[in-house]
Amino acid sequence: MSQKLPINVAIIGCGRISGHHCRSIAKLKAVKLSAVCDLVEEKAKAYGTEFQVPYFTNYRKMFRDIPEIQVVAVVTPSGMHFEHVQEVLTQYKKHVIVEKPTFMKPSQLVATFDTAQSLGLHIFPVFQNRHNHAVCRVREGLKKGELGDIRVVSVRVRWCRPQRYYDLAPWRGTFAQDGGALTNQGVHHLDLSRVFGGEISRVNAVMRTLGAKIEVEDTAIGTFQFQGGAVGTLEVTTAARPIDYEASLSIVGSEGLAQIGGIAANELQVYTPEPEACAKHSEDFKGNVYGHGHEKLYQELAAFFEEGKPFSVTKEDCLGTIKLLNAFYRSDELGNWVDVDGAGDSTRLGRPDDKLAGLYRTSQLEGM
Questions:
Q1: Class of domain 7-126+353-358
Q2: Alpha-carbon span 57 to 47, nearest angstrom
Q3: pTM of the predicted model, to two decimals?
Q4: What does the pLDDT look like over 286-314, one tens digit per residue?
Q5: CB within 8 A of 352, min separation 6: which ones?
Q6: Which CATH class for the 129-291 domain?
Q7: Long-range contact set of residues 326-329: C-beta below 8 Å, sequence gap at least 24
Q8: What confidence tens digit (pLDDT) does each residue in 56-105 have?
């Protein structure tokens, strides 16, 4: 597995979060940003100029011109991840980093990981909040039994996304390319509920669109049961007005209480086994909703290739979160409780829309 450093990384998709990828890479010696690409030239040029790397509007030309690229970060609209990652794997034989929510459907995730394995390639899912200090402290405490047995897990995301947010791009607010509040905003807290409490056996959810003219939900309310016997509640909305109010996750244990909040699960707000741990393990993200976890992700990437250290998010781990995400949608679609393992793919999330997808496809002829 050992490869000579630095690892050459290219980025496809130059939206806001892509800049955070670029900045994270720039901080490390073991990873090198080799190129950026976006269909909109001014977006690609902005990051190319800022980070002094070649920029492209066609990733096929990028791969031809810079063959030393080893890893590609796919940061395109969520509904395009499956199509883009499959092409990068099969046609260009590159390893892939995939932004949340990795893939829209469990079936897509399984198929893509299977493709990668057959080619001797690797997929690295992004769940950067797992690296936050507050999250790490609570995980450590749970392993040591400081909170006792988990009894209740509660997720609360009360954010504001007005109509103008969804009007920024055609993919926003669509089932084909975006998903709603649970897929786009709540997925990190959904993932952390598994990280803390273990696998969830069944869920019951109601979804509504209350604050914007979009086809997806901007509000999801649910209850869930863990395989270990604990129960949970879910409240995720982008219909709060006029500002973001709260994004928190709390754990009621037989020996104490933990609550994580802040703009991106960065504040340990309550930790009864060790109250002084709250200040010590909270981070000031200074308005940076993405935090510092991407830098840890790229450190893990380098350690994977240089030292053969396992990447922290495995196929089965990632699949657990995407199955859970789809189970909430299936529950709303069926109007009843559903078993997570048997829920399968949502009938809405990631549904085909070739016309919309065409806006984010690179022409086969362009750049030839």
A1: alpha beta
A2: 12
A3: 0.96
A4: 777 788 899 999 999 999 999 999 999 99
A5: 176
A6: alpha beta
A7: 326/105, 326/106, 327/200, 327/202, 327/203, 328/182, 328/190, 328/203, 328/205, 328/207, 328/220, 328/222, 328/234, 329/182, 329/205, 329/207
A8: 999 999 999 999 999 999 999 999 999 999 999 999 999 999 999 999 99
